[in-house]
Amino acid sequence: DQQVKQNSPSLSVQEGRISILNCDYTNSMFDYFLWYKKYPAEGPTFLISISSIKDKNEDGRFTVFLNKSAKHLSLHIVPSQPGDSAVYFCAASVAGTYKYIFGTGTRLKVLA
Amino acid sequence: KAGVTQTPRYLIKTRGQQVTLSCSPISGHRSVSWYQQTPGQGLQFLFEYFSETQRNKGNFPGRFSGRQFSNSRSEMNVSTLELGDSALYLCASSYGDRAEAFFGQGTRLTVV
Q: Which of A54, A61, B5, B76 could form a disulfide with B24 if both were Cys (CB 3.0 to 4.6 A apart)?
């Protein structure tokens, strides 16, 4: 049972445009969400997080939106840069479980 | 500040053997988690330790075990290796629950 789903395996975006990566979840108990970026042969790098008490969090070019009623999470990258090309994972957790449930990832390619 | 260090980076083992992977967390982090990444499966949670206590365990067979030492360093062990155990094993450390996890570069295990 995949509780966190990233339905788009890949996404291509032109440099300078907006990249929107999506994530859906099924467990309404999730109350903390994160996005990670992963380059080949490296571990995931933390990007941004959001608590379920908020619906938006921004950090520079990265903004995460949370729609609890739709159980949907999205990451916006504006403007996209070629160095953003990587695999992006969303993750979710329930307080007190001490674990993250990850999606299967979306490969973003930013075209110069 | 040094990041999460995993050793070794690469490992080739034969079916039936056992293997031990090591993880040194970021200084001051007391929570260490382990994840398995295989193609198409995202990151699957193995277990989490805090102050030498396992607080949660994922849905993996008993061949997968771990421990944490008083200095927060952690090891995971896989006994009676199977071909399907070939994967990237990632260790992450954090201050605790509700805090982002920082990942190491992983150990690439190949079982032949």
A: B5
In angstroms, the CA B47 to CA B59 distance is 9
pLDDT tens column, B35-93: 999 987 789 999 999 999 999 999 999 999 999 999 999 999 999 999 999 999 999 99
Nearest beta carbon to residue A97 from set B31, B42, B56: B56
CB-CB neighbors (< 8 A) of A36 in chain B: 103
Torsion of CA B89, B76, B99, A90, to 10 degrees: 30
Whether the per-residue pLDDT at A51 is higher than 80: the answer is yes
Query: What is the C-alpha separation between A10 and A105, in angstroms, rounded?
Result: 8
Instruction: Report how many helices (DSSP H) and strands (DSSP E) chain A contains, helices first.
Output: 0, 11
Local confidence band at A16 (pLDDT 50, 70, 90 cut-offs):
very high
B42, B44, B50, B52 alpha-carbon torsion, rounded to 10° = -130
Report which of B38, B34, B31, B29 is spatially closest to residue B6, judged by C-alpha positions. Answer: B34
Are the Cβ atoms of B40 and A41 closer than 8 angstroms?
no
Amino acid at B109: L
3-state DSSP percent of chain A in helix, strand and coil, to 5: 5, 55, 45
